[in-house]
Structure formats: C-alpha cells, structure tokens
Amino acid sequence: MVDLLKTAEATEVEWEVLPPEEEARRASLEPLFKWLALVMDQFLRVPGTKLRFGLDPIIGLIPGLGDTASALISAVSLVYAARCGVPRIMLGRMSLNILLNEVIGIIPGIGDAFSFWFKSNVRNYELLQQHLAAPGRARKGDWVFVAIVLGALLLIACLGILVSLFVLQGLIRLLSPS
C-alpha cells in the first residue's frame, strides 16, 4: 500500500488544457523544428564516423554573413514558435541557443568548430519535444528575459552584417585597380 502511494505521488503531472485548434498549431511546430534541426545541424555525415553536421557550419564559413544568415534562419522558426503559443521561457532558452551559436560563430575557425559541436537547432528541437511531452506554464517575468535575449540576438546579427560590409568594402578596395 505504501508503494502504491509513493507511485501515485511520483506520477503527479501538471496539466495544461488547450483548445483543439491550439493543440493543432503546436503540433505543427514539431515537423518544422525537426526539419530545421536536420538540415542545419545533421544533414551530412562524415564518412566512416557517426559525426553529423548540417548547413550551419558550412554557411558559417562565409565571413560575417554566414553566421548572421544561420541565426536569421533559426530566428524565423523562433518567431513561428512564438506565434503558436510556446511559453516565453522556452522561447528564451531557444533564443539563448541561437545567440550562443551566433556569438561564438563569429570567431573565425573556432566558431565553425563550435557550430559543428553545439548544434543549436537540434537543441531547440529537443527543448520543443520536452515541452510538448510535458507542457509547463510560463512566468510573468519571461517576457522581459525573452526581450533582452532577442534584442541581443538582433544586435549581434546587425553587427555581423556591419562587419561583413566592412570586409566586403576592404576586399573591393584591395581588388580594384588604382
């Protein structure tokens, strides 16, 4: 009897009741994040190994623009997740993954190796799967956190574009006959 009570206490689950149309919107998120994780982080395999990578580290090889483009692709899925009602704290964690990949990705060489290892889109897909399996409620302060993280992501993306423009301008000056 005591074991039965312990089991009942251990399996207590917090429920979130959603209307059917809301469940359908959230269910449409999983294929998008799965596809993004596959294409950006696991599309190719190193022959003879279990190491997988996607377009993210390849795109990241383009100085400045590559990491910014990768972050913007990931941010589009984040906006879609927000429109589908994913809790803000989950959006904040996903944004932080994208932000880390962008910030460290800017560093030549090291950033590409980090993108190869970190796989921010796979991490975001796993976070979404955890949330869909056991949805939790967001707190009131989550909006502030998400706004700060998204603001930082936007600032870093803009700085990446700016650096890219300076690099392109320098290349044009270098290659143009004077």
Strand and helix layout:
Blueprint (H helix, E strand, L loop, with lengths): L1 H9 L9 H8 L1 H14 L1 E2 L6 E2 L1 H5 L5 H19 L4 H18 L4 H9 L1 H14 L8 H34 L3
Antiparallel strand pairs: 1-2
Keywords:
178 residues; mainly alpha; two-stranded antiparallel sheet; 9 helices; 2 strands
Protein described:
The structure is a single chain. The chain is an all-alpha fold and 178 residues long. It has helices at residues 2-10, 20-27, 29-42, 55-59, 65-83, 88-105, 110-118, 120-133, 142-175; strands at residues 44-45, 52-53. 73% of the residues lie in helices and 2% in strands. It has a two-stranded antiparallel sheet. A hairpin with a 6-residue loop joins strand 1 (44-45) and strand 2. The longest helix is centred in the last third of the chain and has 34 residues, at 142-175.
Summarize the structure.
The protein is mainly alpha-helical and 178 residues long.
